[in-house]
Amino acid sequence: GESVGLHLPTLSVQEGDNSIINCAYSNSASDYFIWYKQESGKGPQFIIDIRSNMDKRQGQRVTVLLNKTVKHLSLQIAATQPGDSAVYFCAEGGGSYIPTFGRGTSLIVHP
Amino acid sequence: NAGVTQTPKFQVLKTGQSMTLQCAQDMNHNSMYWYRQDPGMGLRLIYYSASEGTTDKGEVPNGYNVSRLNKREFSLRLESAAPSQTSVYFCASIIGTNYGYTFGSGTRLTVV
User: Fold this and answer.
1) Euclidean distance between CA atoms A63 and A47, whole angstroms
2) Is the pLDDT of residue A3 over 60?
3) How far apart are the first and last CA of chain A?
4) Of B34, B49, B46, B51, nearest to B104 (Cα)?
5) Residue B38: enclosing H or E segment and its boundaries?
6) Using only C-alpha atoms, what is the Rg of chain B?
7) Exposure string (b/e) for A38-66, b if CB count within 10 Å is 16 or more?
8) Which residues, 6 or more positions from B25, have their beta carbon under 8 angstroms from its beta carbon?
9) Residue A77: exposed, middle, or buried by beta-carbon count in 10 A (0-12, 13-18, 19+)?
10) Dist CA B34 CA B66 (whole Å)
11) Cβ of A43 and B94 within 8 Å?
12) Are A75 and A64 a contacting pair, CB within 8 Å?
């Protein structure tokens, strides 16, 4: 079956560093991808999305890169702050009502 | 604008008891979803409602039922709770395909 997965379950960084969280997907027909942030005790929160006709999209301190050739998605967080500590999920929303979620990567930011 | 509101936030049930988790959204979204989240398992879809009047099973529907009461409300019912249903439950809504979810804050359910 199709799947969305993450390369690293935990990522530890120092405050001020840039963080990169990776995600692999296997459905070559996927055309929409989303990153969510989930803080402890809260529901996932939409961060940024990208459609398959784009390679890169930037938000406030975040950038999502899409490499369709190798079916890889990444989330880059610039100047990581303690408030960025959370679990980050990628999701594939490929033309259906049912996105597929990865298991998540825990980002730990050390002051 | 409250987004997606779930009630209750916490609940403890005894095995065999029943309960209904409530979810309401005020964003005029068409589709609503119920997920459960367990450690190391990520988000797993229980049931969803693509539009008012329709419901469909997700990945893990056994032991649950749902009702799409109207466009705003989508409830999840556990008829006979089991310890395996101990989890955090999230409701979510979406305006249409290829848009991000809006999630509620979750219901932490413990079945003893």
Assistant:
1) 10
2) no
3) 41
4) B34
5) strand B31-38
6) 13
7) beeeebbeebbbbebeeeeeeeeebbbbb
8) B3, B4, B5, B32, B72, B91, B93, B102
9) buried
10) 9
11) no
12) yes
HSE-CB at B4 with a 13 A cutoff on CA atoms is: 30
pLDDT digits (tens, 9 = 90+) for A19-31: 999 999 878 888 8
Count the Cβ atoms, other than its own, within 10 Å of residue A107: 21
What one-character DSSP code corresponds to residue A79? S
Residue A3: CB atoms within 10 A of its CB come to 11
Phi (first) and psi of residue A9, to 5 degrees = -75, -30
User: Which of B92, B97, B101 lies at the smallest CB-CB distance from A95?
Assistant: B97
* A93/B98 touch (CB, cutoff 8 Å), yes or no: yes
Average pLDDT over residues B15-39: 95
Nearest to B98 among A32, A41, A89 (CB): A32
- pLDDT at residue number A1: 31
